[in-house]
Amino acid sequence: MLHDVTAATHKGGYLIELVFDDGSRGVVDFSKYLTRGGVFERFKDPAYFQRFRVDEDAGTLIWDDEVDIAPETLYAQATGRLPSWMEPEEIDAANVFRARTTADGREEDSRRPERGR
What we know:
The protein has one domain (5-86): NE0471-like N-terminal domain (NE0471 N-terminal domain-like), CATH 3.30.2020. By secondary structure, the chain is mostly beta strands. It has helices at 46-49, 71-79; strands at residues 5-12, 15-20, 25-29, 52-55, 60-63, 67-68, 99-101, 107-109.
C-alpha cells in the first residue's frame, strides 16, 4: 500500500518532519539532495526549499509545482521502512533456480529443458 504524506513541518535547515496517512511520522534530511543536481539545484536556495507544500492529490511534497519526491521514497526515508507493496515477497523454495550436477559431472540449468535426450 502506498502511503500519502498528510502533513509536513519545517524543522530547520534541510529537515522536514512528515506525517503519513497510516499515522507514521519521521524527519527527513533533504540535504542529501543538494548534490544531486538537476531540479534539486533549487534546494541550494534556503528560501526556495522552505516553500514546500503537501500536494493532497499526489500525496507528496512539492515545491512550486515543479519539484516533487515520490511518496514511497519519503516514507522509507522518514520511517526506515518500505511500504508494504515494496517489501520482498516470500520465496517459494520449490520455484528457486538450482543448478544440478548430472551423472557425468556436467552442471545443468534446471530452468531449461534438456535437448537431445
